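Quick entry between incubations.
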Amino acid sequence: CLFTTSSNMAKSKFEYVRNFETDDTCLRNCYIVVRLDGRNFHKFTEQHKFAKPNDNRALGLMSRSARSVMEELEDIVIAYGQSDEFSFVFKRTSTWFKRRASKLMTHVASQFSSSYVFYWKEFFGEDQPLLYPPSFDGRVVLYPSNRNLKDYLSWRQADCHVNNLYNTVFWTLVQKGGLTTAQAEERLKGTLAADKNEILFSEFNINYNTEPAVLKKGTTLIWEKLPNAEEKEVAVTRSRRRVQAHHCDVIGEQFWEEHPDILEDDNC
Amino acid sequence: CLFTTSSNMAKSKFEYVRNFETDDTCLRNCYIVVRLDGRNFHKFTEQHKFAKPNDNRALGLMSRSARSVMEELEDIVIAYGQSDEFSFVFKRTSTWFKRRASKLMTHVASQFSSSYVFYWKEFFGEDQPLLYPPSFDGRVVLYPSNRNLKDYLSWRQADCHVNNLYNTVFWTLVQKGGLTTAQAEERLKGTLAADKNEILFSEFNINYNTEPAVLKKGTTLIWEKLPNAEEKEVAVTRSRRRVQAHHCDVIGEQFWEEHPDILEDDNC
Amino acid sequence: CLFTTSSNMAKSKFEYVRNFETDDTCLRNCYIVVRLDGRNFHKFTEQHKFAKPNDNRALGLMSRSARSVMEELEDIVIAYGQSDEFSFVFKRTSTWFKRRASKLMTHVASQFSSSYVFYWKEFFGEDQPLLYPPSFDGRVVLYPSNRNLKDYLSWRQADCHVNNLYNTVFWTLVQKGGLTTAQAEERLKGTLAADKNEILFSEFNINYNTEPAVLKKGTTLIWEKLPNAEEKEVAVTRSRRRVQAHHCDVIGEQFWEEHPDILEDDNC
Amino acid sequence: CLFTTSSNMAKSKFEYVRNFETDDTCLRNCYIVVRLDGRNFHKFTEQHKFAKPNDNRALGLMSRSARSVMEELEDIVIAYGQSDEFSFVFKRTSTWFKRRASKLMTHVASQFSSSYVFYWKEFFGEDQPLLYPPSFDGRVVLYPSNRNLKDYLSWRQADCHVNNLYNTVFWTLVQKGGLTTAQAEERLKGTLAADKNEILFSEFNINYNTEPAVLKKGTTLIWEKLPNAEEKEVAVTRSRRRVQAHHCDVIGEQFWEEHPDILEDDNC
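Done. Structure below.
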């Protein structure tokens, strides 16, 4: 009894340590981007026998996990993913988690990671069991203007394009051209995009432009209003929408003109 | 071709957005604590029929996931968990991830969450399937001195004790005493630790002091050197240790005297 | 000799302490506002016999010191002051001091404070010597959009107006109405702006709207191009401008329409 | 009237901009060091004809300004200065300004700068008027342990020594040896401390070790209890102490053993 009383007192005696927490509130009126990247995914893809250069099961699982993040967390207006990375954009006026950076990024990282394991079998079936729990690291970046945010997404999509073109030629040279990986690397040194397209077309009769959009453009997730949502049912509005995947260009203006509700005005 | 060339150029044009990332390096010579807390675990425990007041399967899964974190990340010298929370302490001189707070906390949150799903079946078997991917949020706190760090761990263990005593009495009143949860809450209003011990002992013949240590003290994970590690095998030293769980008091000095290697000297 | 050699070595041995400095770079593409406030200026104004409710010498000295800040630091596009405070706005694309918050705010605070003492005699003459060195504290706030920045300046100007109206009535009641300060405070409790205007007009025949603009609107400093600057003299452009003081409304759009070059576009 | 009412309302409408301020509280239980450095002091010393290599008037003014900072701000336990820089150390448990970094550093920078101008004439007399207001920039660095803090001060004192020895030889070569500054620079390239001592001694008969301590060691300011302070007069304790200047070694342990009250224990 003596012990438990003192333990009670002890708790208040130790509580001063709470004051060592520091505030990491994100600046208001900025888009909050959380980007996740796979940790040691080179090894992970080897051990789980991912197809080269792209594994559709893996890309599907990434998107499924990202959808889970969008459905569980509030205020994510758009997400973009490619390869083993995914970016989530919180609307600039969001007050979710009081805009605390640490909470936002750990929650995203946690939900994504648990979903990745949870849905693994749905995409990889019984043939390829998950051998160990994978992990992702994350970061938070703030963007003050619509221009900055669009440029961020454009940067990731341009990165997707550059990498996918390279990987497509590289693995075609290896898988169909019979080159070793070292030879393929040597062959591609210094080549421009046009050169790579030419190799694909003239040597392997592959037109890169007709490759699947999911590979060339990555995956963009946005909210779509369900058509049968009736105006009067205000209370259930939140569930009257669903996450929709697109594999289109986000660098040009067309996408943004077709979806004017994703971004809020700069003049706010 | 035109397209791909411009896409290449586009990437460099957009790359300025990288400069919006801000540095979040943790202050040197401070212990870095990452604490995870279950999100909406009240609902999660209901839906997965956790035993009340404590579910040993769930506590085992928490420890297993924490061990996975310690084994995957470098420089965690001690971890402490209770209920649906776990704290991980990086040594004060760690340079892991260049001490970047965002990387450290998202990696911990991710590894823990994926492990929680991965090892679920090992603890809950086939009877209780995992219904949806759970999530945890995290935070980073820095402690400049050994005293501060010990007080942090003491605070969490005192919290464990206070909560566990309350929950033990509360659920005993409900499960064995036939009270409703509202009645049990009313009964306990304003009671001290001594009163709660007395209720358990005089009404239910339960001696709280003999309850399992894992419930009263939580779980402390530290590294233990394997006895057969030979001095000369320097190269494999890192693997010559394993995570060991303790359920002992960390508030007093005895634990720290018995394990003098966990903390580094303040005078560094 | 031994000593000096070891001292040389000592320096490099101690240099690790530099790594404890943390980065405080301001988020890109945001306006950086540094606001200074007088420390203990209530006491300072008493001891230096400032006229009530406004001392024109003191307001002139504040503006002169602010001008000195604008002339010495780069990239300040507008400054606004009232009473014992002054705000300085760095342009959103500024790279001055690599956008390091600590450098920006200490330099502003330092230049302003040394100027305040340096120019004191120019405004207070020989009659009122400076009795001791005054001080100001500062802070940095970031604003991501033009709307936010204008609202910040509007907030300070609205504050100027509200305080000046109150102080004008308060000191008129005391100086001309013969009330004690306690009586004047009591008289004004709960009064609205309209009530205060009415007291001034009906009891003291003062029309608040004709009070000097410097008191009602504060002081706005902006850069003005000198008319005789010739286009070809690119090299000397920087000196071909001077700080110009305005005492006009900055809440409405007119000021911003008349000076379209102060702010940069949101779409950058 | 309409105007003033709307201005009142305007203020509350704009007040949301306050929420853009971010918290910059310094981590608890760390020493807070604010260091000031003269801005463009090379030019400033030229224009004000400072004696080379050291100007005693200028060093005296720096110390006088630093004393003014210690007397006006709370919780500075030690300050160290050399050349055109001064460091101020707040005690690790200080709650002054709620430990807000921006307030601490701007207040130090402001008080120091206004004092520098205020006391100029006391040191430079009528012969050398102050031509324009000088400025200093500042930064904040946190140190978690006594070892780190001592090493910081040692680093600055080692820097003082290294620079002063160089400057002493350099200006002796120029002023007494008749070398141009370019020749002196060339002569000293690659020399060690021992070489510099030798040049001074063998060529100019100067024993560096007997140079004034203020130049070799810089200036350390600490609080000294006044001897006539009576124990019972608790209320006036704060004024019963004064700032005392030392020019002694702070790298070794002797200084700290002689003044055991400057630092607080690490175990707090």
